[in-house]
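Design a sequence for this backbone.
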């Protein structure tokens, strides 16, 4: 009887060991890293921040998941400032100045190169096509 209980315990330990090592491997490989950038867009252009430090050009690695957390100025909401990045199907208006609830834009960097960020939504704002061009670069290595 003791032998049977011992064998049962050993079997359970082996099975649970296999299952937990499988899930550990899965978790390591399934999610790409997220590169997060704060973005302030105003009438003069884009300012990007990485870890709360201003940077000139956001840069990520191929395959990374990218997250822009964007705000504009409360006095410029009607300008309809936004972020467009054609190669990644991004075209989003940013209608909040609240940094605690920014506009969140996410996509996967599935192409390499140097891409142009511009303001497509500005065309629909109070300035329309007279809005100054806003432009920045985005790099995927
Ligand atoms: Cu503007």
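Sequence:
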């Amino acid at each position: 009887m003791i032998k049977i209980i011992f064998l049962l315990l050993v079997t359970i330990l082996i099975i649970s060991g296999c299952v937990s090592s499988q899930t550990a491997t899965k978790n390591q490989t399934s999610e790409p890293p997220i590169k997060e950038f704060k973005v302030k867009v105003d009438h003069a252009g884009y300012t990007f921040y990485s870890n709360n430090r201003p940077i000139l050009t956001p840069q990520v690695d191929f395959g990374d998941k990218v997250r822009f957390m964007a705000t504009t100025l409360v006095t410029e909401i009607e300008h309809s400032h936004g972020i467009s990045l054609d190669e990644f199907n991004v075209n989003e208006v940013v209608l909040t100045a609240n940094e605690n609830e920014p506009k969140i834009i996410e996509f996967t960097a599935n192409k390499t190169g140097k891409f142009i960020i511009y303001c497509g939504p500005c065309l629909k704002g109070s300035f329309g096509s007279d809005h100054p061009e806003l432009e920045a670069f985005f790099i995927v290595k």
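Strands lie at 34-42, 45-50, 53-55, 59-60, 65-71, 82-85, 90-93, 103-108, 113-118, 135-140.
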